[in-house]
Amino acid sequence: MTLRYGARRIRCRGFWTTPTCLNASQTPKVTVPWQRCRSVASTPNAERVLFPGALNSKFTNTIEFLRPTTKDAIPTYRVMDQYGKVIDKEIGTETEDEEALSLYRNMVCLSMMDVLMFEAQRQGRLSFYMVSAGEEGIAIGSASALSPSDVIFCQYRETGVYMQRGFTLDQFMNQLFSNSKDLGLGRNMPVHYGSSDLNIHTISSTLATQIPHAAGAAYALKLQNMQQPDIPPRIAVCYFGEGAASEGDFHAALNIAATRQVPCIFICRNNGYAISTPTSDQYRGDGIASRGAGYGIDTLRVDGNDIFAVRRATKEARRLALENGGKPVLIEMMAYRVGHHSTSDDSFAYRQRVEVEDWKRRDNPITRLRKWLEGRRLWDEGKERELRSRLRKEILLAFDKAEKGKKPAIKHVFDGVWEELTEEQRWHVEELRDILERYPKEYDIDAHEEGLDSLRELEKGGRR
Predict the structure, then answer these.
(1) Residues whose CB falls within 8 Å of the CB of residue 141, separated by 6 or more in sequence, listed in order
(2) What residues are paired with 227 via a beta bridge?
(3) Which among 94, 119, 355, 431 is annotated as catalytic?
(4) Radius of gyration over alpha carbons of the chain, in Å?
(5) CB 132 within 8 A of CB 139
(6) Which residues cross the membrane (predicted)?
(7) What letter would DSSP give residue 266?
(8) Bridge partners (DSSP) listed for residue 331
(9) Which spans in 405-462 are helix H?
(10) 97-404 has which CATH code?
């Protein structure tokens, strides 16, 4: 057998082998073609490199450094232009009219909630908030193209993902006020949502930690998809900003995802700024998409202001992620962060107001979709006024209810650590109860459900 024929036969084999044992102590052995080629040695007349670290590279006797500045930038995929005109009418948008209307309503709702909650924070009624202005199409568009069973890992500007998946206005407001109906029982700061029912992991303040978590979860899903073929396969989806892509967690996650070939979509929102740091100071290369190619990951750059492009790209990425047992996909969604980084930030300290206003006027995902709807006679100014009036009432009603709600019971401070209270925790409960009883004017116990009774219940030794 010749070397060339042997290499070709190796490449033609199956993508991964069938596991012989699937018990708890043994995980399936997954072997990809390029790993099998490592034992192949080069021959004197070989035309391509067969070193384990760089397979299939041609030999050359010319010194030619790879110069990124001389190469064309990675193209940006779009379906419609900024005027709402579909570019390829034969393919269209692959979105039904009623579905497009639903997406538009959610984007408007998200935008209005952001404005109202930002104002509420400025009034001192909320401690913190983050808006999604300019990025509504990325979150809502991508979420609409995923399966409800897919596991989601968000950063902190994916409110639209929650909204599209069914997170209610009441649930948003309960979390923002950390009241007794908050799914997190008041343990997180505002906008750090989470929902096990919607398969979305709770948001963490620590930057980029969700990226390796998503890679690990995707590997678990890969094994689950193999072991349970009767259940529809699932993938993991991870959202992060281009600033998070400068963290070490990003590189570790993409590398392990590529080498283990896990079914995961990494969605980068490149909005131009990592808080106050513009992209020009973050990296020199061609955005974040170029890094995906460097890790051997299928990669696409998309116009994030085009919700139809976002949807189609996400659908195709999900198909690729499940291909041949699984593999990672990176999508760089291009956008512009219209709002401040958060309510703790004043973006006009590091960028010109005219720059922001220019982006607002020139292009944004909501107006682009509205132009498309109006072009199909599905929307008009009257419907817009009616929608905004109704949504404003619904948002403020949920806001008012959540603001008046009681805080979670104090006993929940000790939940979620041990199944039963430890001896040390009992001392802490007793000490806390003693302090609260001795200084009633310093602490508003009545604001919490059950008051001090919740701590006394713990002291009795009952299971929680």
Answers:
(1) 103, 307, 308, 310, 311, 314, 365
(2) none
(3) 119
(4) 26
(5) yes
(6) none
(7) E
(8) 267, 300
(9) 423-438, 453-459
(10) 3.40.50.970
Amino acid symbol at 441: K
Backbone angles phi, psi at 303, to 5 degrees: -75, 105
Task: Kindly report the backbone phi and psi dihedral angles of residue 299, in degrees, each rounded to the nearest multiple of 5, phi listed first.
Answer: -135, 145
Strands, sheet with 236-241, edge to edge from the N-terminal-most edge strand:
200-201, 151-153, 236-241, 264-270, 329-334, 298-303
3-state secondary structure of 209: coil
The DSSP output letter for 84 is S
Number of helical (H) and strand (E) elements in the chain, helices listed first: 16, 10
Q: Which residue has the tokens 């940006």?
A: 76
Q: Is the pTM of this model over 0.85?
A: yes
119 is catalytic: yes
Domain segments of the chain as ranges: 3-64, 97-404, 410-459
**Rounded Cα gap, residues 306 and 140, in angstroms:** 11
* Residue of 42, 57, 127, 205 marked catalytic: 205
Is 342 among the residues known to form the active site? yes
CA distances to 172, 273, 346 from 350, rounded to whole Å, are 31, 10, 8
Residue 29 tokens read as 């052995």
* Closest by Cα among 50, 18, 57, 14 to 32: 14
C-alpha–C-alpha distance, residues 296 and 291, integer Å: 9
The pLDDT > 70 percentage for the chain reads 90
Tell me if 193 sits within 8 A of 172, measured CB to CB: yes
The Cα–Cα gap between 458 and 464 comes to 7
Q: Tens digits of per-residue pLDDT, 60-91?
A: 899 999 898 899 999 999 999 999 999 999 99
Tokens at 462, concatenated: 């009952």
Nearest Cα residue to 175 out of 157, 194, 158, 162: 194
Longest dimension (CA), the chain: 88
CA 31 to CA 221: how far, in whole Å? 17
196-250: pLDDT as tens digits: 999 999 999 999 999 999 999 999 999 999 999 999 999 999 999 999 999 999 9
Closest CA to 160 of 106, 115, 198, 116: 106
Q: Is 459 assigned a catalytic role?
A: no
Give the three-state DSSP class for 148.
coil
Coil, helix or strand at residue 115: helix
Q: Which of 341, 347, 448, 454 is catalytic?
A: 341
**Rounded to an integer, what distance in angstroms lies between the CA atom of residue 433 and that of residue 436?**
5
Provide DSSP, 87-150: S-TTT-----HHHHHHHHHHHHHHHHHHHHHHHHHHTTSSS-----TT-HHHHHHHHHTS-TTS
Nearest to 411 by CA among 363, 372, 463: 463
Residue that is written with structure tokens 């020009």 in the block: 280
